[in-house]
């Protein structure tokens, strides 16, 4: 009886909208969404997204002083009643930055912990999910779209292509793990309450103040162009298929080529049995020792072991991701609540980096984490190499009165983190250089760290390491190995070189030997049945060193001493001829490697397996 069998009728929806409008109008009159910097205390639960030259902030709550004194209102915070924006085409610091305040009609919901999905056009975003502030009645099931005007403003409208019938099949939840590809939005799990969706009934017990939080299954997908809203199974997400307080990130690597929608990586959070209460002892943290990866093309789940400076379990984190300059992809994880067996919240301030395809963690210097702890914040990548974090508070203070009235050490709740240098700042630099992987990340790869990855699944390995132009179904192997010798400036043919050497040699014995060696060589070049295996340690190390250190390849010097028919010289000739053929093989492979090195914008994993295709 917790979740009703059908949505409320039209009259109930109209009553809900009317009551929400009255609440919104009250706060529009008495609350400040952009308080003076000197009065600002905290901003939390907001969603943020970059559209063009502006960072947009929507939803969440804000707290502030009234003329330098604590508010006498019994509520320490209030819902954000406007959509805000910040300029990204000019530099600013967090004390003097000017927010743009965009009117928000009362019919548009202001929710906490919602998703913001960018439209494929790059000029609009959609909001999905979320929970009302202070246990007010949730809004009706609608999908709203914000369209930017290109100058830091914009307007709100309902999504014109999605039907109420389609929306009625989906339960709104809060604290889901959300992300997006270019044109599809994803929302996994979260928890449902009477304040997230009208189909969830409020508590019927005498303890009416106790809310019900239910862990929910499934992935909601929004195809933004068509407005199609669908569900997908999440049974591969941990032991229960649920997740709340975690984060998702779309990685544009692997996933099976042009048809693919990339891969989804899930980080942190808490998992629990389906429909279990938030207070249930069965809730358990999601460890960072293994990372869950989802391939939306084939609806396949993977779990990959990690190494390095692995974070302790935590939830209500924020994550951003950037493509590295050497074909890697780095995901930055900041803040959150560290899980403990006693379930006593401990807010943290560390920044960790998960580098792919190495699945290795690095930790930012300790001095960059002091005084920066927060949870329930949001963050975005801006200005090529900077992470801007918005809001957050210290939930370890336990009481809303305390953590909402605790002044944020950052003015206006804004912090700026340089992703390359891994250091915090109060200033945003609009002219910052492009992102480069942090030095510790580059060092790990240059020292051969990629060779130590213990892949849990061959398909997952290929999706990260092989070219994206080939579709890779799960549990199937590529049928055509790539040819590392393909390219311009081919090596001289072995037939010409061997013929030139044999021209000064008489007798059939040595000629037969040459034919035998030539036959063996061509047998070795014959394509084998494809299989996935790791190249030998020696081969992998040499190729990797040449790729990174640019060390000059050894040239091949052919001996030109005359050959003779004496038995000893015949034996020597055999040895010499074998050396010539071996040397030519090395030269040919070296030139192929140099051609590969000259190709631009290829990932390290791509290069690694393309130049070793004969081992697959």
TrEMBL record:
<protein>
    <submittedName>
        <fullName>Podospora anserina S mat+ genomic DNA chromosome 6, supercontig 4</fullName>
    </submittedName>
</protein>
<dbReference type="InterPro" id="IPR015915">
    <property type="entry name" value="Kelch-typ_b-propeller"/>
</dbReference>
<feature type="region of interest" description="Disordered">
    <location>
        <begin position="469"/>
        <end position="492"/>
    </location>
</feature>
<keyword id="KW-0812">Transmembrane</keyword>
<feature type="transmembrane region" description="Helical">
    <location>
        <begin position="496"/>
        <end position="519"/>
    </location>
</feature>
<keyword id="KW-0677">Repeat</keyword>
<keyword id="KW-0472">Membrane</keyword>
<dbReference type="InterPro" id="IPR011043">
    <property type="entry name" value="Gal_Oxase/kelch_b-propeller"/>
</dbReference>
<feature type="compositionally biased region" description="Low complexity">
    <location>
        <begin position="478"/>
        <end position="492"/>
    </location>
</feature>
<keyword id="KW-1133">Transmembrane helix</keyword>
<dbReference type="GO" id="GO:0019760">
    <property type="term" value="P:glucosinolate metabolic process"/>
</dbReference>
<keyword id="KW-0408">Iron</keyword>
């Amino acid at each position: 009886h917790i979740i009703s069998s059908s949505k409320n009728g039209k009259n109930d929806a109209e009553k809900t909208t009317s009551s929400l409008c009255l609440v919104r109008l009250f706060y529009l009159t008495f609350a400040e969404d952009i308080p003076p910097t000197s009065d600002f205390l905290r901003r939390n639960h907001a969603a943020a997204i970059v559209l063009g030259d502006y960072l947009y902030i929507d939803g969440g709550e804000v707290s502030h002083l009234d003329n330098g004194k604590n508010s006498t209102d019994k509520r320490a915070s209030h819902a954000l009643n406007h959509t805000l924006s910040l300029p990204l085409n000019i530099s600013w610091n967090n004390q003097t930055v000017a927010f743009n305040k965009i009117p928000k009609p009362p019919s548009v919901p202001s929710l906490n912990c919602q998703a913001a999905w960018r439209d494929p056009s790059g000029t609009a975003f959609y909001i999905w999910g979320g929970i009302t502030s202070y246990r007010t009645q949730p809004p009706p099931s609608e999908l709203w779209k914000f369209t930017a005007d290109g100058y830091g403003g914009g307007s709100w409208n309902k999504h014109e292509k999605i039907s109420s019938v389609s929306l009625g099949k989906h339960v709104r939840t809060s604290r889901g793990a959300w992300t997006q590809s270019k044109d599809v939005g994803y929302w996994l799990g979260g928890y449902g309450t009477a304040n997230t969706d009208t189909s969830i009934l409020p508590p019927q017990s005498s303890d009416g103040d106790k809310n019900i939080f239910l862990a929910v299954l499934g992935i909601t997908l929004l195809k933004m162009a068509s407005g199609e809203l669908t569900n997908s199974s999440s049974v591969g997400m941990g032991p229960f298929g649920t997740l709340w307080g975690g984060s998702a990130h779309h990685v544009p690597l692997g996933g099976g080529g042009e048809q693919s929608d990339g891969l989804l990586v899930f980080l942190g959070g808490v998992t629990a049995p389906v429909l279990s209460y938030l207070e249930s002892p069965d809730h358990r943290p999601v460890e960072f020792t293994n990372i869950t990866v989802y391939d939306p093309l084939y609806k396949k789940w993977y779990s990959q072991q990690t190494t390095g400076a692995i974070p302790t379990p935590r939830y209500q984190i924020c994550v951003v991701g950037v493509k590295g300059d050497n074909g890697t992809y780095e995901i930055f994880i900041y803040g959150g609540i560290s899980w403990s067996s006693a379930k006593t919240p401990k807010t943290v301030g560390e920044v960790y980096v998960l580098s792919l395809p190495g699945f290795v963690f690095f930790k930012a210097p300790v001095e960059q984490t002091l005084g920066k702890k927060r949870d329930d914040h949001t963050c975005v990548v801006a200005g090529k190499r900077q992470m801007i974090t918005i809001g957050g508070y210290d939930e370890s203070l336990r009481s809303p009165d305390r953590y909402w009235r605790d002044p944020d050490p950052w003015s206006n709740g804004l912090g700026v983190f340089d992703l390359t240098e891994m250091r915090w700042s109060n200033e945003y630099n609009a002219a910052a250089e492009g992102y480069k992987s942090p030095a510790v990340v580059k060092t790990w790869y240059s020292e051969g760290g990629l060779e130590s990855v213990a892949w849990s699944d061959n398909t997952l390995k290929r999706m990260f390491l092989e070219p994206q132009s080939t579709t890779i179904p799960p549990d199937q192997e590529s049928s055509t190995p790539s040819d590392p010798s393909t390219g311009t400036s081919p090596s001289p043919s072995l037939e010409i070189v061997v013929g030139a050497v044999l021209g000064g040699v008489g007798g059939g014995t040595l000629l037969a030997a040459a034919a035998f060696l030539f036959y063996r060589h061509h047998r070795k070049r014959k394509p084998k049945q494809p299989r996935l295996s790791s190249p030998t340690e020696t081969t992998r190390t040499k190729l990797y060193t040449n790729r990174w250190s640019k060390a000059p390849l050894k040239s091949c010097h052919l001996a030109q001493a005359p050959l003779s028919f004496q038995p000893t010289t015949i034996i020597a000739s055999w040895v010499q001829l074998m050396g010539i053929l071996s040397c030519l093989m090395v030269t040919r492979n070296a030139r192929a490697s140099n051609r590969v090195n000259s190709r631009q914008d290829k990932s390290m994993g791509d290069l690694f397996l393309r130049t070793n295709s004969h081992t697959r």
